[in-house]
Each structure stands twice: as C-alpha cells, then as structure tokens.
Amino acid sequence: SADLVQALEEYLPVILGMAKDGSELEDKIQFAWMNQEDDAEETALPSAWYEVLSVLHMMAMLRLSQANSLLLPKTSLEGYHTKVSEENKRASVEVFLKAAGHLECAMHQVLPRMSPEKR
C-alpha cells in the first residue's frame, strides 16, 4: 500500500493542475473508474474535480488501513498475542490524522467546487 500511496501523492498535483480555476482541461478529459459494486463495467465522468475527490478518498482509505494494521497485536512464536506497542499507537494516531486531513480537504475544498449533479 505504501507504493500506491506514493503513486497517488505524485498523481494528485497533476490532477489539481487540471482542475484549477480557469483550466481548459477541467471538464475535457474523461476519467473512468472500474465498478465492483454493480453490473456496469466502468463509470466515466469528464470532471477533474471528481478525479481529485476519488484520489483523496483512496488516499484516506489506504491511510485508515495502514493505521488499523499498526493497531493489530502481533502473535508471538509461542502463539499468544502481544500488546500493541506505544510507538505503534502513536504512529497509528498520526496516520489516522493524515486520513482525516484527506477527508477534510475533500469535504471543504473539493465538494464545494463540484456541481450538485456531479456530487
């Protein structure tokens, strides 16, 4: 997941450049996403802001997964679960805060820029 987070962090500025006010590309490029929830194979939408929203959502979900994995107790060689270390607890809180930052940005910076139809 670390490689995916890094790829998304590198992709986000590119998409933000397409979405910024006055950009001719904002609604010109068709972004497509694979569906896993229904029968349609993919959803496509010409909206750079929706792509920014999708990237922020994916980054937040990956961070939440990372934070959760830090809180899982490790199993020792003897088969019993050890406590989660204080270091892992602190690291988990930092990762949760990063996820919250991604979601807050999506709510306050991205969603207001999208039309109600695209939300």
From TrEMBL:
InterPro entries: BRO1_sf (IPR038499), BROX (IPR038898). This is BRO1 domain-containing protein.
